[in-house]
Amino acid sequence: MVHRFLKNAKSRLGKLFDGFHPFSSRRFYPPPFILRNPILKGVTGAIHSGNEVAVLIFNLQNINELAISLGVREHSQLMKTIKKYFRLAVFNELEQRDIISLHDFYGDGLTLFIQINYERQWTFDINFITKNIVQFVENKVYQLYPKVELCLNTGYMFVDKDHYSIHDSIVKAHRQAIAITEKSLGIDGQNLVQLMNRLLIKKEVILLAQPIIDVATNEVRALEILARGPKDSPLESPMQLFSVARQTGKLYELEMMVIEKALEQLKQSKWRQDIFLNCTPMTLSNIRFTNDLKIILDKFIGISPSKITIEVTENESIEGLKYFIYNIKRLRLMGFRIAVDDTGAGYSSLQTISEIMPDIIKIDQSVIKNIDKNALKESMLKGLLLVAKEAGSLVVAEGIENEAEASVLARNNVDLAQGYFYARPATLIKGIAT
């Protein structure tokens, strides 16, 4: 009897999205039968294929005001229209094979599960995609309802691939994504903000260092500093750490704290060669950045900017970032070198190269992976080496995992490389640098 009721309920709700799968009206905890089929199956398959899975939340904050102003019948029609346009927007922005599920998670919002294959999807920016989806829906609704102003909030979280239970990881990621979307409403949102604030105050990030190797001599030439959140916390994964920081407005503070802690540990260590410090374009475009960086440097006399490479991370366009180029010029005047990360991973990294003419170009691991078995990838590598030569840049190849890949770099005279084949990241003070 219960089984038949659930089956009929799923069938009726399924008609809302013509094949997409509805969520329960329960706010934070999806019922197990929904997760087992089809969401759990889709997420499990994506993770086992080596992909990342993200949970995106789109929440209509002013649903009650709309219901009062429009009346029951017109409000019901508006909600159907919004859901229809969300469906169209999602298909405009994403390939169908990357959509695991789109459904109601409760009455005033939608949940979208997507898989991200960074080897295939060379350029993928969740913030850009969510912005486009929201703009599409808002524009379409405005054409039909000129007097209606939607208030759509978004948030996202990645499903933890390393958790022993994928089911529990889905529930946790979904709950945290909702909490970010409604950060002023739920206790989980308050917890995430509190975790981030505590992390910043106590400088609880864990720093690792991965060597950058001279391909010709196998000598260590530099270290790239990598950040992780507190162990066994919701922010341990760097992907979670920086996505929560961005969505809670703490990205700049986090990146500046990482830089300060990295220089502090360098001062304590015996490492005297070059280091690479990561910064997102958003942080690099902050008008305060170079002044704040100088204040940090003044605390650590003896660490020369000439030994530090500022690595522009994230595969996102720098277009519209007002102070980005200005700050890059100031960094060069201060003595820093500039690197561009993820080269070969889409148009935006090549655009950044043409704008700033970096000292170092880092070739994305999607180009390097299995390059010994793929003649096209080696041709791409040669093309990027020509780009680097024109720009006067050194080249670092990322993600080297075996000797065969390394041999391709050697015969193409790549300058530098990093990856598990050479060394895994280790703690700076007790690991590599000592």
TrEMBL record:
Name the Pfam families on file. Answer: EAL
Stretches that traverse the bilayer: none
Per its UniProt entry, which superkingdom is the organism in?
A: Bacteria
Question: Where does the EAL domain lie?
Answer: 189-434
What the entry lists under InterPro entries is as follows:
Cyclic-di-GMP_PDE-like (IPR050706), EAL_dom (IPR001633), EAL_sf (IPR035919)
What SMART domains does the entry give? EAL
- Extract the GO molecular function terms from the UniProt entry: cyclic-guanylate-specific phosphodiesterase activity
Question: Which protein, by its recorded name, is this?
Answer: Diguanylate cyclase
- To which species is this protein native? Neobacillus mesonae
